Structures are given as C-alpha cells and as structure tokens.
UniProtKB/TrEMBL annotation, chain B:
Pfam families: DUF4439
Domain of life of the native organism: Bacteria
Gene3D superfamilies, sorted: 1.20.1260.10
Protein name: Ferritin-like domain-containing protein
SUPFAM superfamilies documented for this protein: Ferritin-like
Domain DUF4439: 5-140
Origin species: Paractinoplanes bogorensis
Length: 157, 143
C-alpha cells in the first residue's frame, strides 16, 4: 500500500515550489511584457445586445422610409416602437444613450419590407433567448420586446 | 407562480367565451376560419394551464357561467373590437407569469403572450385600426 501521508519535509518542499512558481508568475506579469494591455473593460450589461438591435432596427426603418416614402405611414409606427424600446432599455441599463446611430447604418444596403421582416424575426429570436436567461425583474420587459418584434413581423406580412 | 397561472387561466377562459360570440358576428370565410383557429388556440392554452396547475396541486377558481362584456357586440366592427380587447387582455394576463417562472415554463408563457399579441395585430389590421402594434404588448395600458 502506498501511503499518501507526506512527511513534514516533503510537504514543506512542495509548498516551497508552489510559492516559487507563484512568485515567478508575478515577476513575469510585472516585467512590462503585458503593459500594453488595456484595463479589462467593464462587463457589458446583458441587455446591451437588445439595445443595439433596437437601435439598428430603428435605423433600418428610417432608411426604408427614406428610400420609399410611400411606405411611411405603414413603417413609421414600427420604427417608433423600436425607439420606445431604446428609451426603456437605456433607462434600465442605466447609462447615457449614444447620441449617434450605430456606424453600421452608414452605407448599409437598402431595406425592403422583406429584409425588415427577416431582421424582426431574427431580433425576436435573440430576445426570446435573452428572456429565458433573464433575472426575474427584467423578464417582463424583455418578453414584451420579444412579443413586439413578433407583431412587427406579422405587420410586415 | 400559482396566482399568476390562475389569472392567465381566467383570461383564456374569458377568451374562449368571447370568441363564441365574436364568431357569430364575423362575416366572410377568412374571418370565420380565423376566429375558429384562434378559439382552438385559446382552448389549448387553457388545457395547458389546467394541467400545469393540477401538477402544482393548485386549485383554480371555476370559470364563471357568463361574462360582462366591455361593450355591446352587435356587428363585425364591434366583434373585431372585442377580439382586439380580448387578445390584449390575454397578453396582459400572461406577462406576470414571466418573472415567476424559469426555463421552459417561462418560454411557454412568452409564446402564449406573443401569440396573443400577434393575433391582436392581425385583428387590428382586419379592423383597419392604426397603428396595428403596441410598443410593449402585455404591459397594462393606462386608460
């Protein structure tokens, strides 16, 4: 039978090795190799992707209306819903909203009713996934946003 | 979770009652077929809630024999108005289930709320009500 009991000397030696490698690690970290690394960013709020989608969708409706003014009466209320989501999510996340639309909207392809509908369906899916994982106090808001995106897909049929 | 599920059950029971009345006043094969499909969807949700509450060993209040309608239903326009009212109410009844559930139960509640919101949008379009959507379906609206 192999004994797992370590003698005092062996244990001291092992602990010493561990301490030495810990020291080596910190020396390495302090030697300037990693000084270029920025401070770790503050973890993003789990609602951030939902806010980004809402802003992108609102911008998509603006582009669609600019390209086809005849669709304005049909599309404007849908874009307004997304702007209401942006306002509410910004409030819940507790940060000041960016003053400009995401840069992705510049030079993005022309929007059609069909592409808007696809975007709504994709955004609904991601909202459902977020709702599933959400803390209780945010579940109702995320759920309403998911449901709203589904009604948009219906309105664009 | 039981009081919230009980409230959702009451809303689904009310919807089943209302669609019986709505169907009578709708015209055209499209409208009538839609109303029948929707009534069946509400029956399925009711059955789900009854079995879920029974699993949780919770008793649900018996559904009332009749309902007080929010307004008189006499023609297609008032029938569509009632359909919109009913679906908004069903969505509002399911929304409080979301914070008190997790996992698949929450996803089922969200699906029920979403389907009600989508039907409300469809009825608004048929009734030529604008806008056809709400920014936060299920959130109680201030009267």
């Amino acid at each position: 039978m192999y004994s797992i009991v370590l003698t005092g000397a062996v244990r001291r030696r092992l602990l010493g090795t561990a301490a030495a490698s810990a020291l080596a690690g910190s020396a390495l970290a302090g030697c300037g190799l990693f000084d270029d690394e920025p401070a770790p960013p503050e973890p993003a709020d789990p609602l951030q992707p939902l806010l980004d989608e809402a802003m992108a969708l609102a911008a998509s409706y603006d582009r669609a209306i600019a390209a086809q003014p005849g669709l304005a009466s049909r599309l404007t209320p849908l874009g307004d819903d997304h702007r209401a989501h942006v306002a509410e999510l910004t409030l819940v996340i507790g940060k000041t909203p960016p003053s400009v639309a995401p840069s992705a909207s510049v030079g993005a392809p022309a929007e059609t009713v069909a592409s808007l509908r696809e975007a709504e369906q994709a955004a609904q899916k991601s909202a459902v996934a977020l709702c599933r994982a959400a803390v209780p106090e945010r579940a109702a808001l995320i759920g309403s946003i998911a449901a709203c995106r589904a009604t948009h897909a219906e309105a664009l049929r | 979770m039981n009081p919230q599920l009980g409230a959702a059950l009451a809303a689904e029971e009310a919807a089943i009652y209302a669609y019986g009345l709505i169907g009578v006043h709708l015209e055209g094969r499209g409208d009538v077929t839609e109303a029948r499909t929707v009534e069946q969807a509400h029956r399925n949700r009711r059955d789900y809630l009854v079995s879920r509450l029974s699993q949780l060993r919770a008793s649900a209040a018996p559904s009332p024999a009749g309902y007080q309608l929010p307004f008189e239903v006499t023609d297609r326009a008032s029938a569509l108005k009632l359909a919109i009212h009913v679906e908004d109410g069903v969505a509002q009844a399911w929304r409080p289930v979301l914070p008190v559930t997790t996992g698949n139960d929450r996803i089922t509640a969200l699906a029920a709320m979403t389907e009600a919101a989508v039907r409300a949008t469809r009825w608004r379009r048929l009734a030529a009500v604008s806008p056809v959507t709400l920014p936060f379906p299920g959130r109680p609206t201030t009267p």
